[in-house]
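**User:**
Make up any protein.

**Assistant:**
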Amino acid sequence: MEKGKKEGSEISRRTFIKASAAVGAAATITGFPAILRGAAPKEIIIGSIQPVTGPLPDIGIAAQRANKLAVDEINARGGIKSMGGAKLKLLLGDCEAKEEVGRIVAERQIKEGAVCLVGPFLSGVAMAIATLAEQRNVPFVIDVAALDAITAKGYKNVFRCFSKTEYFMSSMARYLDQIIKEKKVTIKRIAVTNAGDAFGRGQGAAFVKYIKDKKLPFEIVEHIEYPLGVKDLSTEVAKLKAAKPDILCPVSRPGDAKLLIREMYKQRVEVMGIISPGSPGWYEPEFVRDLDKLAYYVLDNVPWFNPNSKRFQEANARFEKLYPGKYLDCNSGYSYTGVLVIADALERAKSTDPEALREALRKTNFKDSPMIGGSIVFDEKGDNINAITAMVQVLPDPNMDQRVKVVLPKDGAQASYVFPWKQLWERG
C-alpha cells in the first residue's frame, strides 16, 4: 500500500462511488433548481486562476468554465446556508501559463477580497501561488496540478484535490504490469518524451526515476524533452524512430500530442502503442476530434471522473448544454470539484476567517465527489489521499464525445482495452 494512503483507498478494491442526490425538477434558466428569493445576502469571493491564454487556452477556458459551473450550482441551491445563504462570487484570472503572471493575478485577487483561491492547472504556477498564499495567509485549493514539490514543504494553506506525481507513478507501474500479463506481450524498450515546463519535466523525470529506483525490467532507450508550445517535432520523432522502442510513454499537452502523432504517422514510427504515465494531451476534446482515427488506442494513466456518479452526469449535462461540443473531463472535472470542496469547507467553517476556513479544509471528508477515488480527504501536507488514477483509452465510437473510456481497473471499466494497437498508417 502506498505511503500516505488509507487502507481501502485503492480503486481495485472498491467500486466507483455511489450516485448523489438528484437535482430538483424546478429549474432556473441555467438549469439549476429554483430557490426562494429574500434579502440579498453578502458575497463570498473566490479567486479562480487558470491559463486562459498562452499555449493552453482550451484547457484553461474549460477549467474556468467548470469553476463557474460549480459556483452557479451552489448559488442556485441556496448559497452557503450556514452564513445566511451567502452567495459565492468568482473572480476570473488568467495566468497565461506563466508562473510570475499567476502570482501577480493571485495577489490582485487577494487585494480584491478573495478569501480562497482555486486553480491553476499548471504545476509551476501552482508553486508560485502556493508560496504567496502562505505569505498572505489565504487558503489555496489546487484543483489540478500534480508536481510533488508543491505540497512537499508542508504549507498550512495549500490543499490539493488532484493526484500527486508519486501516486501517478505507482499506478502506472501496476497498470503496465497488468497489460503485459493479460495481453502476453513483451515490453522491454521504452521511450519517454515530455514538455519542458515544470509539470512535464517533473512527470517525465519521475517516471524514469521510478523505473530505475524500483528496478523494473525496462530499458529507457530515449528520453526527449522539448519546449512547451513547440511547433515542430520532426527531429524528436526521428530520434524516437531510430531508438526503436516497444512503447512510447509521453507527457504531453494537446498541441504537442497532435504534433507527435502526426509526425509518427508521417515517419511511420512503429510501436506497440502509446501509454502515457499521466498527462492531459491524450484525452482532451480537441485532440480526440482533430486526430480522429489517429487518436485511437492511446492509453493514459490519469485521475478521472466517475462515469457512474449521478452528480457528474448532471453536471456534465449542464456543461454540455452551456458549451455545445464540450464536456467535463479529468481537468475540468477536478476544476468543478475544487469549488465544491471550498463551498463544503465554508459551510462547515460558518465563516470566511482564514483560520476557520483552513481548519475546515484540513478536516475535509467530501463524500460527494464526482471523481474516482471516493471521499476527498487531505493528509498533513494537504494532499488528497484518495486521488487515485484510472487508465483511459481512446476507442472507436460514432459519438466523439464518448470515445475516451475507462478501461482499467476492471471494476470500473466502461470497455475492454486494445493492445497492441493497429499502426497509425493502417487505420484507413
Notes: The radius of gyration is 21 Å.
